[in-house]
Structure formats: C-alpha cells, structure tokens
Amino acid sequence: MKIGILGAGKAGTSIARAAIAAGDEVAIAASGDAERIRLIVEVLVPGAVPTTAAEAVRDADLVVLAVPMHKFRAVDPALLAGKIVIDVMNYWEPIDGRIDELADAPYGTSVLVQRAFPGARVVKSLNHLGYHELEEDARPAGAADRRAVAAASDDDAALATVLAFVDRIGFDPVDAGPLARGILLEPGSPLFGAPHDRAAFEAVLDAHAEALVA
Ligand SMILES: NC(=O)c1ccc[n+]([C@@H]2O[C@H](COP(=O)([O-])OP(=O)(O)OC[C@H]3O[C@@H](n4cnc5c(N)ncnc54)[C@H](OP(=O)(O)O)[C@@H]3O)[C@@H](O)[C@H]2O)c1
C-alpha cells in the first residue's frame, strides 16, 4: 500500500518505520516543505520519501494524521476528501492547551475530526499506544504475547483496511465499532496505554461500551 503520513514527529516517524518494515511505500510530510525534514527522514525512516502534505496524500491508499491535536484544523479538508484517514491524535492539555470543544467531546475527538473533514473516511486507531511501543511490542501473528490495537470508524470498508494494516505492522486488530466508541481509546480510558492481548482488550472494551450506551 501507499501510506501518506502527515506529521514527521514521534508518532509519524514511528508509524512510518512500521509501515516500511511491513512492506508499504511511505511518503511523509510536516507542515512545511520537504527540505526541512529530509535529514530527519533519512536518519529516522530510511526508505520513506520526505515531501509536502499535498504530495504525501495525493496517491495514498491510507493517510495517517499524526499532527498535534491543536493543529489539525490547519490541514486542508480538500486534501483528505475520499481518503481513508487514520486519526492517531490525542487531546492532551499540557501539549495542546485548554480547548473546551476537545476536552468535553462527549463521543471523543475523532468525531470532531470527522466533522472537520467531512469527505474523509476517518478511522481512529494507533492513538492508544506510545510511539516507542509500536516497535517494541510488535509481534508476528500468532505470538502468545501479541498486543491488541483497536480501530473505530463509521465506514466499514475503511475500518477493515485499517484493521488489516494494524495486523500487518504486528498487532492483533480489534474492531471497536463506530467512531463514537473512539472515546474508549482516548486518554482517561482504562484501555489507553493498556498492553492487553485481544481477549482482555475486547472484554474491557465490551464492559465500557455497555456503560457508554447506558
Ligand atoms: N508521541 C506518542 O507516543 C504518540 C502516540 C500516539 C498518538 N500520538 C498523537 O499523535 C499526534 C502527534 O504527536 P507527536 O508526539 O508525534 O508530535 P510531535 O513529535 O510534536 O510531531 C508533530 C509533527 O506534526 C507536524 N505538523 C504540524 N502541523 C502540521 C500540518 N498542518 N501538516 C503536516 N504536519 C504538521 C510537525 O511538523 P512541524 O515541525 O512542521 O510543525 C511535526 O512533524 C498527537 O496528537 C499525539 O497525541 C502521539
């Protein structure tokens, strides 16, 4: 697959390395032109192409949105129209500042991201583990200690694509259901940062999803 990554920071470069290790083609962009990130990308993500946001997204089968949450509205919605977009962002007040809309989002921040990018096929995933864990905890399919990573979306085909990507980069994929369930994957949820296997992850997810409905 062709993966376009917006954000060449800790999360973006880690996901880029994981995708390259899985055999995907990766183009990666920060907020400016390609020259500003060329050296970082050469060193941290050998094999990835440093480029602009528009170029990274243009031919991508899958886009990863890995910019600081308080900056996501700077991304042009037209760029993401029709694209499957993994929202890996978390709202974190010490980094993002106080933003009431994000802090109080009743169904989580990815619902707001989907609203901001109405043409995109938003899938929340990969946000609930630390960037270093993407490499440290990746395991081949069938490994006894393989960790679960969930994805939530209102677009079934996009969700299936992202779950397959999660599996390819070394984690047991868990279908977390609609995008509004994404709140169960965010900071403050017991699933955030929890290194569960699939069975344990699904058990906690189901218990909390019931509470969400109630
Ligand atoms: N760090 C983690 O372990 C981790 C894990 C899961 C999820 N996340 C989430 O992932 C997001 C990014 O976190 P991070 O730790 O990777 O942040 P970071 O290290 O600060 O990197 C942010 C990157 O986003 C780029 N960026 C900013 N505005 C942009 C735009 N409009 N278009 C394209 N790129 C843009 C920045 O480039 P410039 O220098 O050009 O601004 C920078 O390369 C956050 O929401 C975070 O909560 C982080």
Automatic annotation (TrEMBL):
<protein>
    <recommendedName>
        <fullName>Pyrroline-5-carboxylate reductase catalytic N-terminal domain-containing protein</fullName>
    </recommendedName>
</protein>
<dbReference type="InterPro" id="IPR036291">
    <property type="entry name" value="NAD(P)-bd_dom_sf"/>
</dbReference>
<feature type="domain" description="Pyrroline-5-carboxylate reductase catalytic N-terminal">
    <location>
        <begin position="2"/>
        <end position="91"/>
    </location>
</feature>
<dbReference type="InterPro" id="IPR051267">
    <property type="entry name" value="STEAP_metalloreductase"/>
</dbReference>
<dbReference type="Pfam" id="PF03807">
    <property type="entry name" value="F420_oxidored"/>
</dbReference>
<dbReference type="InterPro" id="IPR028939">
    <property type="entry name" value="P5C_Rdtase_cat_N"/>
</dbReference>
<keyword id="KW-0560">Oxidoreductase</keyword>
